[in-house]
Amino acid sequence: MSRRLVLMVLAAALHAAAAADPPAAPPPKLCAVLNNRILGPRSADRPLPLLQGHPPALRTACVVSWRTLSPGNQPLAVTDCYQDSLLQVADAAACGTATGPLWVSSRWVVTSAELQAGAHSPACQLLETGAWAGTRDFEVACKPQPRDFEVKPEAAKAPAADSTKAAPAAPSPK
Amino acid sequence: MGGSARRAAGGGGRPGPVGSALQSLLLASVALFFLNFNILGTASPSKRFSQDLVYAWFGNEAWLYPRPSPEHPAKPRVVVVMIDDAALALRGAHWPVPLQFHAQFLAELEVLKPRAIMLDFLLLDPATADDICDLLRVGSRLRQQGIALYLAVTQPADLQHLDAAACRGEGGARVSTAAVFTPVSVQRQADGSDFVSRRYPFEQRTETSPPGSGIPSAAVRMYCGPDPGAHACMGRLTNAAPDAGFELAWSPQGDPFNQRWSHASCIESISPMRAVLNEPALPRESACPPVATLFASALLSPEVDPTLGAQNEALFALADGAFLLVGGNFRGSGDLVTTPLHTLLPGVYYHAVALENLVAFHGEPKVRKEFRSPRLAFYLYDLLVLWVLAAIFLLRQRWVHRGDYAHSPFELSTAARTSIASTMARQLPTPVWIIGAAVLLLLMSAFHSLQLIAVASIIAALVVVEIRVSPAAETHERLRGLALYLTALGLSLAVIALAVWIGYRWLRLPPGDWLGYFSFAAFGFFVAHSAILEFGRRVDELYVARTSGGGKQ
Fold this sequence. Notes:
The complex is a heterodimer.
Chain A: H1 2-20, E1 37-41, E2 48-54, E3 57-64, H2 66-69, E4 76-82, E5 86-89, E6 102-105, E7 109-111, H3 112-116, H4 153-157
Antiparallel strand pairs in A: 1-4, 1-7, 2-3, 2-6, 4-5, 5-6
Chain B: H1 3-8, H2 17-35, H3 43-58, E1 78-83, H4 85-90, H5 99-110, E2 116-119, H6 129-144, E3 148-153, H7 160-163, H8 177-180, E4 182-185, E5 199-201, E6 203-204, E7 215-216, H9 218-224, H10 231-238, E8 245-247, H11 272-276, E9 292-295, H12 296-300, H13 313-319, E10 323-328, E11 336-339, E12 343-346, H14 348-360, H15 375-402, H16 414-427, H17 430-446, H18 448-469, H19 472-505, H20 514-522, H21 525-528, H22 531-552
Parallel strand pairs in B: 1-9, 1-10, 2-3, 2-10, 3-4
Antiparallel strand pairs in B: 5-8, 6-7, 11-12
Helix pairs in contact in B: 2-15, 5-6, 9-14, 15-19, 16-18, 17-18, 19-20
């Protein structure tokens, strides 16, 4: 009887301990990492497309090689980050002098934040294959419904670069 | 019929070789007429369905559909790049896709060094001159690097508002839309019988305009290329009727690349046995498309898909030198295409599969007989095949009738009929067995799963009755007839397979006629219509009698 009681207490303790274990923490998002730096291009023989402006009002700036972006082949400090994919680089002269801050996609460069994070799986995608007998509201002023993505506060605080053009509305945060 | 041939055969009852050939030609001609008898459009669905079945069963086989893949590096790959809400959100944009996003995205695609890029978006929405010029400048840079750019239009005037911005390039020279984008038609064709898009138009033009004068369809233009040297290729492909198109071969399996993101399995195997067992013979709706698909969000952010390689090697292996077709995947946008094997897919796959077809078949895709020239020659080929099948049928009939037992091997013998009738009369009153039979047939009609079981049970019961009551000699003759039937059927199937293969491989015909051939050869069509032969024989006898009588006179 006493042995059974001990076993039950042990089982309960193990169960409680297992329940108390936190799940493995997901790697931090790119924009959440402090002191992030661009270490170099992912592929040396490919150019780097750069954007200029302030998100979401971005424009294409130019396409340069890593050598042009970082003449000394030195890591570049990331001064801003947008949607965990766009990185603002400190050097603003790669496309000329009048471009302002330049942005590059994290797809084309290796960052120190990426090296810190562990490997993880690709996100699942889904094709829209349903036909709907309804009309979609195309009104520009409408507020998009929250979807399966996160929106960073940078989208909300970014100023509109061109006041004559209606900037696309940022999706509302979850 | 074949009076001279009959005389050559010694004046016996059976016609000689020429007479037999003429008889089978008559039978084949009747079959040809019924094969193409399309009143109320009833013939089209069966042809299209039999074509779908071929691709469902063998569409993954390289001998049928040698589509571009990593295993065939000589052929450029076709890749769909899918823009969706998540991709737009990565750049703070939303649907409809703004021009500025297209400009940024083209700059990203430039890194992949593709062969060509097609934007399956109608750029009809108003845009600022800055946005237009940004897009044209990026496009101009891509063109200078040898990357062809194609833009979807509904009519040539669609590009006028882009030119109105009067954009200038880096050197101050005017950048025209025509110098950057090659306009392509994205018009869709669908079969009227089921609204499935199996056919892809060569070009978009009116009934009155001459061939080659319209807007070429996206896949056709991309295959031939944007250069002036592509005129010969374009002329060859667009030299057809205004509503003409080529048939799309489909693969039931999804592209292996898509398994990295697809919820659904990309491996689909459909056995012909499922059709026999009354199960769905075509693959169900699959969200894993047959063309390699790169989601734009994965391209824009390695966080979405980090498995494309630390140095993007998987990405470059996919897109380097490939045709990239950029399309949209937005809920409620309505840009969907009904396909024969994957039900509904975003519209860009229509063009991607068409381009894969052109690449796979080296610019000579499969085209239906009604769009071919000279049309009669292709129907003559049909007649030739049916002629051989009719000859096999008549040969079998002659062999069967050579013995003492001149009945069909599937016909119930007199003894068996008598036995079954007497048993039923003894056991069941007439109203009971008639109502019983009606109920049984009603159940079989309503519940498909019962059909195969009921047919198998009835055949087994009849065989048992025949073995019990028929004389041994008759059973032997019946088995001989059955063996002859199976031999003739096997021979007919071989002829059908060969004819469909020759038609597919060398005459570029879609594989949609096999079910018609098979129904004539196996399901008793020739038996049902062999009365035409009796009519022919009667006419021939009268002709011979008149000519011989006239000779005497």
